[in-house]
Write a structure and sequence with these properties.
The protein is mainly β. It is built from 1 helix and 2 strands. It is elongated and about 55 Å long. The two termini are about 35 Å apart. The N terminus is likely disordered.
Length: about 90
């Protein structure tokens, strides 16, 4: 197997066998739609619980992703194309 060079790494390290380089200029996405998230664990800051208890409706201004699980699958009818699924919480 030939060694792959990852051009965007600082020290130009060689990729491991289970790693892959992604040409980000050729990503075609279908994730531009908004998703409704429900049943997620949240961590409130400061006096957030008191504000939440006194509220009837909540609108989120910003979030921080704590954990992600990224999986890739080959697209069976397009050689060289992959489906990337990112589950986050």
């Amino acid at each position: 197997m030939e060694n792959k060079i990852c051009p965007n790494t600082r020290m130009n390290n060689k990729c491991k066998d289970d790693d892959c380089c992604i040409d980000t200029y050729r990503i075609y996405d279908s994730c531009r739609y908004q998703e409704c998230m429900s049943n997620l664990r949240i961590f409130l800051c400061g006096d957030g619980q008191e504000i939440l208890d006194a509220s009837s409706n909540v609108r989120v201004k910003s979030i921080k992703v704590v954990w992600t699980q990224i999986t890739t699958d080959e697209v069976p009818f397009n050689r060289g194309y992959y489906e990337v699924n990112i589950r986050y919480s």
